[in-house]
Amino acid sequence: MQQLEVENTKMPESSTLPKLSLIYEQHPTYGVDLFISGKEGASNLELLRRNGITTVVNCAVNLDFNYVRQPQVVSDHEGSVYGPGEIRYYKIGLIDGAGNPQTQMVAAHYILRAALEQILPDKPSYPRRERGSVLINCRGGRSRSVAVVSLFLHLTLPDEFPTLDIAISYVRLQRELPENEWFKAPKPVLADAARSAAAWIRMIDNAK
User: Per the confidence metrics, is the pTM higher than 0.85?
Assistant: First the structure.
């Protein structure tokens, strides 16, 4: 898989972890690249644009971004700035550890699928209709995002990733996670949640 120039820019939290990682190139179902990052990569709008990223799926409950940069359509009401962002932005809101409802990892998978499948109407109030690459992020890009992307790859590409553990191993390598961090990347409780979610999602999809 190709190496990106941005992968040489490291996050301060780790001397080995890239700021932005290309995890899967040209998903055969959706035709887009999938990336993972932590807060530094996800907050860098120019970095996202250079890599063709038009959609961000934020896995973290304790991290938010303001991508609103169009003064003519931005409002400031009691301290809350709002308007159409420069990036299509979806929020999952997982805790990095225990505390998530059992159904939340299931929801995470379907939110990621929605980010890839949703077709926005051709109306002025929906200005971000570009369909480019997708970034999945959490605070460090080590645990929540790794679990969600691994689950997605396992379920959408079962021939290539027949088990969740195979998908997790692949994502760890693409994210360049140091081996001494694998025990917490993803956190075991999130890996277990992804395993349970995989079974639920199969039942839901098979019942359609």
Answer: yes
